[in-house]
Amino acid sequence: MKEISIREMIEIDLNSRFLGIHPLELMENAGKACYDEIKKILKEHNIKKITIVCGLGNNGGDGFVVARYLAEDGYRINIILIDDPEKIKTEEARINFKRLLKFKNVVITSTPEKAIEELNKSELIIDAILGTGIKGELRGNIRKIVESINSTKAIKVSIDVPTGIGSKTFIRANYVITFHRMKKELRGMNVIVKDIGIPKEAEEFVLLGNVLLNLPNRDKDSYKGKNGKVLIIGGSKRYHGALIFSGKAALNSGCDLVYILAPRVIENTLRRVEDFILNIYEGEKLNENAVEIFETIYDKIDAILIGPGLGYDEEIRENVKEILRKVIGKKPVVIDADGIKCIRDFKLKNCVITPHRKEFEIISGIRLKLDLDHQKETVKVVSKKYNSVVLLKGRIDIISDGDRVKLNKTGNEGMTVGGTGDVLSGIITSLIAQGVDNFNAACIAAFVNGVSGDFLLKRYGYCFSAKDLVRNIKRVFGYLYNLKWKILKR
Question: Beta-carbon neighbour count of residue 378 at 10 Å?
Fold first, then answer.
């Protein structure tokens, strides 16, 4: 069975909510799944004295559901709440807590002294304290309760993941009943995996859960340049708009500074854009002069985009490779448009490559079939070959880092207009410069670029341009940040 990380599971859980699966339904399914397994444990060990330790979030809510099912079977259940019931955080957890109040065989306490006494009497302790909700080391009352649980001789069952996993103090569970998929962090433990009705799309597609959890945060004490400095290398006598699309998209995606490395022939066009820091070299296309100037600004930037409007010939190809030799493995690089034609069989690392179908065939030597499963596997293989993230643009975008594969279905056929790929690569580079890892930056960018295009389609039909797309990017990010702050409380 495929393993996922705890963080990926949090994303999948959020995705399910945005797909219309109510959290109350998932909580009920999770609690019932745990109950089914706990019944087997009770019978095997002939257990009568049961304590469920519940937190104030949805992991605690799962514990409330388990308690209800066990109470209906006639078991006497001790529930230890880690704090006052009035502080229960989610609506679904509050609903399931209230459902327990009618049971006379359910005893609820939130008094620490009483909690320790009950734990020492217990034959089975069910851990529903934090689940995936932990950040950092356990402290205060929770730490004391976890230490007390570990000191007992009772059989210990953790719901989803043991409380404190990843920190020095965590529940030493005899059984872990986890949901949907095995978690990488649970290797070596006695794990039971239960299906709770999470739809396939919640794991396979880039959805709001993936986006919201991976949007870059910003330090309140940050200063100019702290939140991302991007360098874009491109432009030529024939193509100059692509650089502007990428640069403005990068700024509208939240980075602080955009440096441009471009030939003298398009300087006047670029100077009309007040937001860019220009680095101009002599000539009409990428040449040795560009490489020399690149060496003087390389240390100032956090992420590099190479390719928009670059043009292609043998001289350009060799100079692209020369620049890549200086940065590969040292700084993240996004390779787009004409830059992609320069890298076939070139040894890469820590890059994002954004080909459309024809460009993908150039770097892979593989003719893609229409079958989506074939495309997913092929992108995964090519990503491994180049030791980089590959984002194959299409009706359904495919993003892979050689291990994970995500699909994105935002966007529309109106986005065949020139420049939309330059916008995409600008968003990716900006997010990477702000500290988002390459894979999630590619996923977020594909989603945001597509959502921006979908909004324009509804408003203008097919009559919109890359310039419109760039302008709309900041509106999409504004909506996403406000949603993140509302749901995840900053």
Answer: 21
